[in-house]
């Protein structure tokens, strides 16, 4: 049925266009022969095609545009006629003899245009006559297009200030009156369209009406272009007349569109000065009108106007714009009980943006808006409407973007109360926005109270509110979120050690509730931030008894120990071991032997009980050796115990090459350059000999399993260790031992079973070059190396 209707309409349009073209052909022939009577006759017949009621507005527009083009040519002919002596007044009378009213009025408007240009009568009289005559067409579509034609031909002929058609003192009033009258009649016709035809086609008619809205809106654009419409005239005449028509038409589509038009076409300063009048119309509109969008656009325009120049801000203060907008929004939300949450939040968001532009210093206004939002959201719980949550994120992000400072947002008492209404997913998004703002602006949160307030805001990232939700989180997103929290923890700082310790304890309280998956991300930055504080305090001696409240490293280390212990729930023994060793090193620098020994003990327990992976064991052993080598706080007994354990771990590694490297690394535990008390050459030699035996065993195993000797890299590495200690003055390392090792490596490299290894060859060649280089040096070092034959 629909396709049949469309086909019929196409046929009717084709027939109308054919009739129009046929008559326009004869009209052109008459124009060419200067036959006025025939020209009027055929032009009237051509325009009769516009009397059709069969076409939809879309198709009718197509027909109208063809007629419009022909009328422009006819208008030029009329101008020529008047130049040739034809009386324009007679012409104006003559066209009124056309048989049908619609062609008659189109012709009358066309001649009227020429009549105004001739200036034989005041423009205001001709325009008044035309706008009154057009009342003769009451069919909505035909009437709209006729009046649109009148608007089109008259827009450059209005009696405006500075115009060539300007008349007496009240000339602008006449121009405004003409446009307003045409607008009013067009709006009535446009609204009446909804009642044409059966009720079942209402949706189609509304669509058609929507397509025609610009015909009505053009009148408001024309009004805004009239030079003589100053603020007083706009306030006293133009705006009240437009709003009267908008309110009285009681049509949802017309009210929304026309309010939007008013906001878009008239200047910002006019809106500001007439804010009360404009806002008073809002509660009078139909409940179904999307008033939130209208008000949001108004506030957006005013915000941009305020942002354009600081010179205009006094105008905003003068008219009390905030109070008026706030009051209007309150009334609209109260009047529209069924307004969705998203709509209300959109209004508050727009008002907040406006306030931040106009009153950036008034935090009480910002908090007032957030408070109103909380009131609207009260009893709603967590929102599941994605549009509403998106608007809340925009609302909460606005102060951050404006002030570039989370500390300002923390002063807003209603800020966290609004955040409580976000669902868990959006809460995380908002927490991420807050953290990114802090990182981007390098904001220092410097007191424990502020840190507490901040962590309350971002608790969506710090702990799970819903167990099930955790499984649904994308691993990559989760890691990114937690890394941003880690960066935030690193940024917390206060010069006062006491306050800094409070901050650390506050953060610790929050992150320990984060669950096992978060701790590996959040514990390390907290430990390192705490160690920064320890480093600051390490030179500080124990204070007198009266000052025991002051933080000292001794008081901080137990907190760190307990914090690292929390990682056992994850478990991540490798990470915990690294942190224990970091703390041991800090305790060493603070000269706290018992504390350092305790951290080492914890690291050893972890190694023995938790770390079973062979690769992880190798890494852990080298970390232990490296840290222990740097320790200078231990007495002989404690150091021997820890060293003995470390060498034991080294010898028990799974793979022989790993064993060998760990054992020769242990040699450094018995020879520390900076400490005269730790220079045990004999035990160094024992380690290196043991490493040689392990390297030899590794080679034999390779021979047995693969049928070829393994690489001599281990021997070359051990040779380098011998050279290191030989150079450092270890008397146990003799020239003969080094010489023997060089010869052993040379022999192995030339054996038949040896697998070629270019890297080992290059390493050995480099070592021999080093020996030659040292031999060439003058003084004791050169003499020392001289006996070695490389």
UniProtKB/TrEMBL annotation:
Signal peptide: none annotated. The keyword Protein transport applies. Keywords: Cytoplasm, Endosome, Golgi apparatus, Membrane, Protein transport, Transport. PANTHER family: VACUOLAR PROTEIN SORTING-ASSOCIATED PROTEIN 35, VACUOLAR SORTING PROTEIN 35. It comes from the Eukaryota. Belongs to the VPS35 family. Plays a role in vesicular protein sorting. Its main location: cytoplasm. It holds the Pfam family Vps35. One of its GO terms (cellular component) is cytosol. It is found in: Cytoplasm; Endosome membrane; Golgi apparatus, trans-Golgi network membrane; Prevacuolar compartment membrane. One of its GO terms (biological process) is intracellular protein transport. It is a peripheral membrane protein. This is Vacuolar protein sorting-associated protein 35. The keyword Glycoprotein does not apply.
